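Researcher: Next entry in the queue.
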Amino acid sequence: MCGIVGVLGSGKASSELYNGLLAIQHRGQNGAGMYVFDGDAAVLKKDKGLIGEVFDEETLEGLEGSSGIGHVRYPTIGSDVERDAQPFKVEEPIEIAMAHNGNIVNYREMVEEYELELDSTCDLELILHIFAKELDKEDKIDEDALFSAVERVMEKLNGSYSVVAMIPDFGLFLFRDPKGIRPFVFGKKVNLNGTSFAVASENTVLDILGYKVLRDVLPGEAILIKEDRSYQARQLKNMEPKHCMFEWVYFARPDSTIERINVYEARFRLGRQLAKEWKKKNDHKLDVVIPVPDTARTHALAVAEELDIPYREGLLRNRYIGRTFIMPDQTSRETAVKTKLNPIIEEVKGKKVGLVDDSIVRGTTSKKLIKLIRDCKAEEVHFLVGSPPIVSPCYYGIDIPTKEELEASDKTIKEIEKDIGADSLTYQSIDGLVRGVAKKKDHLCLACLDENYPTRVREDIRDYFEDMRRKERKKVKQGSN
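Model: Structure for this entry, 481 residues:
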């Protein structure tokens, strides 16, 4: 999972890209980059770190131009921070810079089929080189050639991808995988300085930068936003969408709207559904409902309202610690948990606490949080979870790990309760999730919940990803010893 931003026709592209990437820093915290074009020449700058660490005032001043693309990177297993930072660019058959959000399932097959020698393990570099090779097959490189080439790319790739490319003398070229797994929106701004366009992973970027959202990029659609400020769109593949449910549960900002469904409202409905699950399965009494900040706040507020129980902030979050779920290794996550959250003892001491979180992935964070509350002399700790049990790995861009590392993959509810130290454990149901998100079930990717993957994931591919993850975790563990 990453975050992408693109602008065309801006007064100062690097400034808008910087502020746009800050708005979606939550989507990636270990690498950032920009490619900016001034009409004559382009500059590419990328490195590891947060956006504010990669780009200072002096660096931004050197990035002159009215158009460009930017990226914040989320670490996945098997990747290298320095080599895999985006954007990437090629210069043949024409100069193209590209950034994306997603993951390619048939990465190895495509590398072999196109006989590629890549400089990184980043899926985006693969997409870029395949697109360049397909474009090179065209008799003439014009607008039609771009759409023709990317249609063949869509036929080849298996996975998720929301892609923004900056192609000098053409403009911004966007395309999204036929299932629309990862979010993608574009918008327009008209003011005294003229007309400009922007694209992003989340609409809050456009809101903050003053753009009016035009719409979501459709699954299987490609859009060319031209230098003359016109655009043309073609839906090259028309398939049933499979939007990632985790965007609404956890990943997106609460003030974002994904596929016309506001994230805050979805999380509130998810909280109501979770409370109904609690009432169906429990005769325990709660004194207080406490969220695990930040993403579970909305879930918890709705739980408290539905159950008519006081809502309290019982855990104080250190805002200078990033998201522990998207940290690259277990050691980083465990260290961060210790410094990220501190309890407010008075709110939990002697009380029967309903602790609400958005999900359980590995279980290590849940276990530590429950112990934290117990150490404050809580009488009971009941754990309520905004998503259903996560039982399968994700192959589409979220680093949900090997099956053996997933807490719910081979344990009963009672076994998980004992493992994490909860007096009771209440999960969201899949039906409750669908009602909460308010999307048709058939239009959601629920693969990590039911193993029903929206694209074909062969056993050998699953084995490859699991082997890669195991090797990476072993390497990280050895490095920390």
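Model: Residues 267-440 form a domain with the Rossmann fold fold (CATH 3.40.50.2020).
Researcher: Noted, moving on.
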